[in-house]
């Protein structure tokens, strides 16, 4: 029924991502933590990523992208995250912001928004603005029908005027395109909901200070503030009332991506810790020869593979429009992200104090893994949605 084998083309993309991560990202890995506020390093990484066509991987060649299929995109995400989860998150989140445009834009909008986002000559990132100070998980909760959104759009002649504050969006401040979840009136719930694209240079758009976080310093998160931001009506995706539906489809296409970032991070930590435990001698023999440690590695290897297979199944189900695709995507978010937290923490454990040291890479994987359990729908919410779908 399922065929998860990578085609030759997919393997080439995977190989390209692996080489990029090893050559352009890995040598910088111990510098990102100190660069969380200055963000001097990421531009050079993103420039290389753009040149290789990663930004437009999800975009149709008609608009200058590569048009890779879902499984190829997942394979690329795993390779990036196996070296650095934060870099995978920044690139993955630009794809996340592209999704509503790919789903709901008309031909003129696709040409206008997707072509620059797919550019290889300059870095144009997308930023999806959902979360607000008073409402995070609720905005992604299909049952809430966007009734907690406080970012308001009002009609004014040929334009809309936007007012509101978003918090935490990835790529905030550096992105060229802001894909904003808004409403004409929260009381109308989904009937007033909408998604509108705001270009970076629009007057009234500003940004708060960069948030200092436990992990993922490569990702720039800050408030995105809209004060009477005027945008033409033809920046609206679909029509007023479509926001809820477009967002839910977008989320289904992206939850598995959070799962694959987690698979990559877990694999990266696992591979390092395994090598370490083959070399490190304790009690007269290499750590890996101790049966408890060996069993831990067997368990970790099994769970990483199980998580990857859930992601591939979800990707397949989206392609064939399987009726269970939303549940499969939710499952491919919850299990892999919980798995990555467990595996990365175990990798720190088996390496002892060296695992806890910033001189070794595994503690970063553990810090980075935590947020993926929270964003794109906290796991408790997503578990609840899986339960209800049963
Ligand atoms: C690195 C990073 C990147 C991010 N990127 C983006 C982005 O690109 N765009 C964007 O809009 N936002 C982004 N966010 C924000 C993130 O998506 C939200 O923080 C997340 O949705 C949770 O919202 P909240 O923090 O307001 O928590 P709350 O909604 O207050 O939830 C707090 C906790 O309550 C529990 N909970 C919530 N709802 C339920 C429920 N229904 N049932 C049971 N338990 C529940 C969960 O344990 C949850 O963690 C990012 C955040 C970070 C740190």
Protein architecture, described:
It is a single chain. The chain folds into three domains: 8-117, Orthogonal Bundle (Butyryl-Coa Dehydrogenase, subunit A, domain 1), CATH 1.10.540.10; 126-241, Butyryl-CoA Dehydrogenase, subunit A, domain 2; 244-389, Butyryl-CoA Dehydrogenase, subunit A, domain 3 (Up-down Bundle), CATH 1.20.140. Helix content is 50%, strand content 13%. The strands form three sheets. The protein has a four-stranded mixed beta sheet, with helices on one face. A four-stranded antiparallel beta sheet has the order 2-3-7-6, with no helix packed on it. It has a two-stranded antiparallel ribbon with strand order 9-10. It has 390 residues and is of the alpha+beta class. A hairpin with a 2-residue loop joins strand 9 and strand 10. Flavin-adenine dinucleotide (FAD) binds next to strand 1, helix 6 and helix 12.
């Amino acid at each position: 029924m399922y065929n998860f084998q990578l085609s030759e083309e997919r393997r080439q993309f995977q190989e390209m991502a692996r080489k990029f991560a090893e050559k352009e990202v890995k040598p910088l890995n111990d510098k990102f933590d100190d660069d969380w506020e200055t963000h001097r390093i990421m531009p050079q990484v993103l420039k290389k990523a753009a040149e290789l066509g990663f930004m437009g991987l999800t975009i149709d060649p008609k608009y200058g992208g590569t048009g890779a299929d879902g499984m190829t995109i997942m394979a690329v995400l795993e390779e990036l995250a196996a070296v650095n989860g934060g870099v995978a998150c920044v690139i993955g989140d630009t794809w996340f912001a592209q999704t509503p445009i790919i789903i709901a834009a008309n031909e003129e909008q696709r040409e206008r928004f997707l072509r620059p986002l797919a550019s290889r000559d300059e870095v144009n990132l997308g930023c999806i603005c959902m979360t607000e100070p008073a409402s995070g998980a609720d905005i992604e909760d299909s049952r809430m029908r966007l009734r907690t959104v406080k970012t308001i759009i009002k009609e004014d002649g040929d334009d809309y005027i936007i007012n509101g504050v978003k918090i935490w969006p990835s790529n905030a401040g550096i992105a060229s395109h802001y894909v904003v979840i808004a409403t004409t009136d929260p009381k109308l719930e989904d009937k007033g909901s909408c998604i509108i694209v705001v270009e970076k240079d629009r007057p009234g758009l500003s940004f708060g200070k960069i948030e200092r976080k436990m992990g993922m310093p490569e990702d720039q998160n800050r408030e995105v503030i809209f004060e009477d931001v005027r945008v033409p009506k033809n920046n609206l995706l679909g029509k007023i009332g479509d926001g809820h539906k477009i967002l839910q489809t977008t989320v289904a296409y992206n939850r598995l991506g959070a799962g694959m970032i987690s698979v990559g991070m877990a694999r990266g930590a696992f591979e390092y810790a395994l090598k370490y435990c083959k070399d490190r001698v304790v009690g007269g023999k290499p750590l890996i020869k101790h049966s408890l440690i060996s069993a831990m590695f067997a368990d970790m290897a099994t769970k990483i593979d199980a998580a990857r297979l859930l992601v591939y199944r979800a990707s397949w189900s989206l392609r064939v429009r399987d009726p269970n695709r939303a549940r499969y995507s939710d499952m491919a978010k919850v299990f892999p992200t919980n798995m990555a937290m467990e595996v990365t923490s175990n990798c720190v454990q088996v390496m002892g104090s060296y695992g806890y040291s910033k001189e070794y890479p595994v503690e970063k994987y553990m810090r980075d893994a935590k947020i993926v359990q929270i964003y794109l729908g906290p796991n408790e919410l997503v578990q609840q949605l899986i339960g209800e779908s049963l």
